[in-house]
Design a protein that fits this description.
This protein has about 650 residues and is an alpha/beta fold. The strands form 4 sheets. The chain has a 7-stranded mixed beta sheet with strand order 10-9-8-11-12-13-16, with helices on both faces. The protein has a 5-stranded parallel beta sheet with strand order 3-5-4-6-7. It has a two-stranded antiparallel sheet with strand order 1-2. The longest helix is centred in the middle third of the chain and has 20 residues.
Length: about 650
């Protein structure tokens, strides 16, 4: 009940100036009610009427309690009843109520600058943090002082205590969100060990379990409800020197399908690969577009972090992407690279072509163009491994007709054209096999435009081994995420018609691979040239013969494309730049690697390879400078980032 004690003001407000904070007001209180109660004691109407006629009592000396009441600035509401027969003391009742309110007012928390530094991953470096006094860290860190090497050793020791790759992933994310310098230095020096944890294949598991993470990799989240407000979201990102925005809508994460907002794991993972190859971490912006998900499991999962609705397919989807790209380019400049990642085929080609057609937009889709380049690079290197065979005489059967293989087929045609093969003839060297079987002209009415350009005049079949027997391809490339699709019969048929069959099982994560390395070598009697999209351990085929299969990872391509684009100040990213990257990567594979069964450099060379491939990309953009000069410019760009000066 809103019952106040208007007639017992102590006058404390006269000395403190808090007239509006008095326990009871003289005039307005009397006008509001003629019947008042204090702690359950009712003031008779007659007394109340007499009180209005009588002059107010002389002010009392301001007591400590009254001053406290005025300082709180709150009118006191009294509702507790008195014991039966007890007399109410309005002043005491009011002051006791004031004390109860005062007890509920939280004590302000005084936080020094060091507390914020401890939670600033760009300034906190564990015991290697410098200028402790200036940063207010005295007493907030142990007395010991360490250098970067010790902090990296500490991080390695923590990783060694993790029993699974996913546990290591969580440990590394915790390190990234607390100590960026140690994280990125560790990533750059231990790339071969950490890349399979932060990127494929473990990032797939991380996306599936993203809702269980209490510490998530940092990124920008843009949802349907943010339409019209995206500029503000982009301004909230803490760095001002972004050069690459990695954008996903999470609809086709690796071979795992629709992961909705959990797709942030892949945008963050790609950004980490960029950083490992020399792009400044502050220049990277992972972005998750959340327009819903059609994954029923996620929609029913109480831990799911995204919008609980089916995917938006209409104009709102396109408008949100348009607004996002505009906001990113407005803040960070028109040359900011827009990297599209893991969109479903229905949007991947369409969105890429839309922004490629916009003047001045620097953009590419890694699933289409990056995968294409790493695939064609592997084919070029494989042909060199087979006694310098001629790439123009190869016939390639692509198992799976999604964005990855269609992109690879397109780039393979360009590679043949560059070597003098007519486009129409080059397309005859390419065959597609989708979920309904061999892509032929007999199915033209059911084919998308992207598939139709590779449809061949042939009898249709939905059996892969039969298709191989009819076409007699020299290379079989799988990117359909159909685990075990390359059966013993399939590999045996490829081995029957080729002395050294080229077999690429590129689907990832590992659980989606078309076959394993061991199966490919066993079923081909050790003759296959094998590569995979996820890394397989070396295979001992027989005593004295061990194969170290190639790792066909996009990480060999997209960082180099970005570095070459940045240093050359390219106004667009063209298919020729990806072909240049593919050829440069293939040229880096030497006879020693061929002898071990590899057609790609080892992962520990990925940063060094990025410099060489980026130089080839930049040289293609501007051949007025030599490739060596471009290599030096790429190296200088990387060294200009303070994070890597000591490495």
């Amino acid at each position: 009940s809103d019952v106040r004690a208007p007639n017992f003001c102590t006058g404390a407000h006269m000395s403190c100036g808090a007239q509006n904070a008095c326990v009871a007001t003289h005039a307005t209180g009397r006008r509001r009610s003629r019947r008042r109660a204090v702690r359950g004691a009712v003031v008779p109407r007659a007394a109340a009427d007499a009180d209005e006629r009588a002059p107010p009592p002389p002010p009392l000396a301001p007591s400590r309690r009254a001053m406290l009441t005025a300082a709180i600035g709150t009118s006191i509401i009294v509702t507790a009843p008195l014991p039966q027969g007890a007399e109410a003391s309005p002043v005491r009742a009011s002051t006791r109520a004031a004390e109860r309110v005062a007890a509920k007012v939280p004590t302000p928390r005084v936080v020094g600058p060091g507390y914020s530094t401890l939670r600033d991953a760009s300034n906190y470096h564990g015991l290697a943090t410098v200028a402790r006094d200036r940063k207010g860290l005295s007493g907030l860190l142990p007395s010991g002082v360490a250098d970067d090497a010790v902090e990296m050793a500490r991080a390695r020791a923590a990783l060694e205590q993790c029993e699974t790759p996913f546990a290591k992933y969580k440990e590394l994310v915790a390190l990234q969100t607390s100590d960026e310098r140690t994280f990125y230095k560790l990533l750059r020096t231990d790339t071969e060990t950490l890349l399979p944890i932060l990127y494929t294949p473990t990032v797939g598991e991380a996306c599936v379990k993203f809702g269980t993470l209490t510490q998530r990799p940092l990124g920008l989240w843009v949802g349907l409800g943010d339409k019209g407000n995206v500029k503000k979201l982009v301004r909230n990102w803490p760095t001002n020197d972004v050069v690459i925005a990695v954008i996903t809508d999470g609809e086709r994460i690796l071979g795992l399908g629709d992961q909705g907002a959990n797709g942030m794991g892949i945008s963050a993972g790609k950004s980490m690969v960029y950083a490992a190859c020399g792009v400044p971490p502050s220049g990277l912006l992972p972005i998750q577009i959340d327009t819903g998900t059609n994954n029923k499991t996620l929609l029913q999962d109480p831990l799911y972090i995204g919008l609980r609705r089916e995917r938006e397919r209409g104009e709102a989807y396109d408008a949100l992407i348009e607004e996002l790209v505009s906001a990113v380019r407005e803040r960070y400049g028109p040359n900011t690279i827009i990297h599209w990642e893991d969109f479903a085929p229905r949007n991947a080609f369409r969105v890429l072509r839309k922004f490629q057609a916009k003047s001045g937009v620097v953009t590419y889709n890694d699933d289409i163009q990056g995968t294409a380049a790493v695939t064609v690079s592997g084919l070029l290197a494989s042909v060199r491994a087979i006694n310098n065979s001629d790439i123009t005489r190869q016939r390639v059967l692509f198992f799976g007709a999604g964005q990855a293989n269609i992109g690879a087929a397109e780039l393979f045609v360009r590679a043949l054209q560059r070597r003098g093969v007519d486009e129409a003839e080059a397309r005859k060297r390419v065959w597609l096999f989708d979920s309904k079987g061999l892509v032929t002209r007999a199915r033209a009415a059911q084919l998308s435009e992207d598939k139709l350009q590779f449809a061949q005049d042939a009898e249709n079949t939905n059996d892969l081994a039969t298709a191989i027997a009819r076409i007699q391809p020299t290379a079989l490339v799988g990117a359909a995420a159909v685990a075990g699709a390359f059966t013993k019969q399939v590999v045996s048929e490829m081995s029957r018609i080729n002395e050294q069959p080229i077999i690429f099982a590129l689907s990832n994560p590992t659980s989606k691979a078309e076959c394993t390395a061991a199966q490919a070598y066993e079923w081909s009697q050790g003759r296959a040239i094998f590569a995979s999209g996820t890394r397989f351990a070396p295979v001992e085929y027989k005593p004295g013969v061990t194969f170290a299969p190639g790792f066909a990872n996009n990480a060999f391509i997209f960082p180099a494309i970005a570095l070459g684009t940045i240093v050359s100040n390219a106004a667009e990213v063209t298919p020729e730049m990806f072909l240049n990257a593919a050829e440069a990567l293939a040229d880096s594979v030497d006879s020693k690697l061929f002898a071990s069964g590899a057609v790609y450099p080892p992962v520990d060379r990925i940063a060094r390879s990025a410099v060489d491939v980026a130089a080839a990309v930049a040289f293609g953009v501007d051949p007025s400078s030599s490739r060596d000069k471009w290599r030096q410019r790429v190296s200088d760009y990387i060294k200009s980032n303070d994070l890597y000066r000591t490495l």
